[in-house]
Specification:
The protein is an alpha/beta fold. It has 2 domains: about 10-115 and about 220-339, Periplasmic binding protein-like II (D-Maltodextrin-Binding Protein, domain 2), CATH 3.40.190; about 120-220, Periplasmic binding protein-like II (D-Maltodextrin-Binding Protein, domain 2, 3-Layer(aba) Sandwich), CATH 3.40.190. About 40% of the residues lie in helices and about 15% in strands. The protein is built from 15 helices and 12 strands. It has helices at about 45-50, 55-60, 70-80, 90-95, 145-155, 180-185, 200-205, 215-220, 230-235, 240-255, 260-265, 275-290, 300-310, 320-325, 330-339; strands at about 10-15, 30-35, 60-65, 85-90, 105-110, 120, 135-140, 160-165, 170-175, 190-195, 210-215, 225-230. The strands form 2 sheets. Strands 1-3-2-4-12-5 form a 6-stranded mixed sheet, sandwiched between helices. A 6-stranded mixed sheet has the order 8-9-7-10-6-11, with helices on both faces. The longest helix is centred in the last third of the chain and has 20 residues, at about 240-255.
Length: about 350
């Protein structure tokens, strides 16, 4: 299998973490795949739970996980065959599809249905209201779902914002890369930033910033992250995509039935710098906003909502075809298999 060539400094995550996970498929029959994730975050807890509990191994897959720090980088790796499956915002597949390229990405399983980032400020705020917001916000890469969803939330809450425009009362900066936002904020850049977990909680615990609001709570449901593969790979390896989707759905079922403490303990090996109680806190925070999908089906209404958000941000030249870049065949089969 190809190894990723320096698209970014990669974080390799060991997969042999659970002593109780069993592999029912003979080792020589296992299929190796590389899964590139857009970020390493507890927001993707169902994925780490599936890995730790051996759900992928049960389906005959040996998964190598790499963190690529950005949907643009995941998409680049996907269409160049550096990885087989990518976890990223579906906006990336829309951009590629609109270029009319022969190689494009198809979304086959949705994982999260709300924005997973939190607005972090320099002082604690009680009874937060967006009308009180003033100053600069580090919003992330222009055209990325985190930045566009932030724009959507600010605008729908009545704010006249600027994008890289310091003359505005609220200015969203897009000059800081996603992976560098926390460090830039801690170095004194801007008044606010948006951060994923566990970073937001770690900064708050250190007293260097304070979680003010959940962006996902205000954005409503949106297809924030989904699993994608290239149209070529899906055509040539449908059995791998089906096996992967089956494992994802097993985890989605378990996430609904398993106490937060048990899930936190299962995924802690992926977040070794965090105390178990902090992982539980983050788990409950994401559960409170209903962040995770209960099945892998990617609904068309969600797809259209995403494009509405992109259009409001001025990042959509034309609306993409749902039928072209979303395939729910594998998701529906996974649901049927579990009955």
């Amino acid at each position: 299998m190809k190894k990723l060539r320096c698209l970014m400094a990669l974080i390799l995550v060991p997969l042999t973490l659970s002593a109780c996970a069993q592999t029912p498929v003979a080792e020589e029959e296992m299929v190796d795949i590389t899964l590139g994730e857009v970020a390493h975050s507890i927001f993707y807890a169902p994925q780490y739970y599936a890995l730790n509990e051996g759900y992928f191994a049960e389906e005959g897959l040996n998964v190598e996980l790499v963190n690529l720090n950005g949907a643009d980088k995941v998409m680049t790796a996907l269409v160049s065959d550096e990885i087989q499956i990518g976890l990223m915002g579906p906006e990336a597949s829309i951009y590629v599809a609109n270029q009319n390229s022969e190689d494009y990405a198809i979304n086959f399983a949705q994982l999260t249905k709300r924005d997973g980032s939190f607005l972090v400020g320099r002082e604690p705020v009680e009874d937060f209201d967006f009308s009180d917001l003033k100053g600069e916000i580090l919003g992330g890469r222009l055209g990325g779902v985190p930045e566009m969803t932030l724009e959507y939330v600010l605008k729908t809450n009545g704010l006249d914002i600027g994008i890289d425009d310091p003359s505005k009362e609220v200015n969203v900066r897009t000059d800081i890369q996603f992976a560098a936002m926390a460090g830039s904020f801690l170095a004194g850049e801007a008044d606010y930033t948006t951060l994923f977990e566990p970073t937001a909680t770690e900064i708050e615990k250190e007293g260097r910033g304070y979680i003010i609001a959940s962006i996902g709570q205000y954005s409503g449901e949106i297809p924030y992250t989904a699993y994608s593969a290239s149209n070529k790979y899906i055509s040539e390896h449908p059995e791998v995509i089906q096996a992967f989707t089956n494992a994802v759905y097993k985890a989605q079922i378990a996430m609904q039935e398993t106490p937060a403490e048990e899930i936190a303990a299962a995924i802690q090996p992926y977040f070794t710098d965090m105390e178990l109680e902090d992982i539980v806190t983050v788990m409950e925070r994401y559960r409170s906003i209903d962040a995770w999908c209960t099945n892998p089906v990617f609904e068309q209404s969600s797809f259209e909502k995403l494009m509405d958000v992109m259009a409001l941000a001025g990042q959509l030249d034309k609306r993409a075809s749902y039928e072209k870049i979303v395939d729910n065949t594998f998701a529906q089969q996974a649901i049927d298999n579990a009955k």
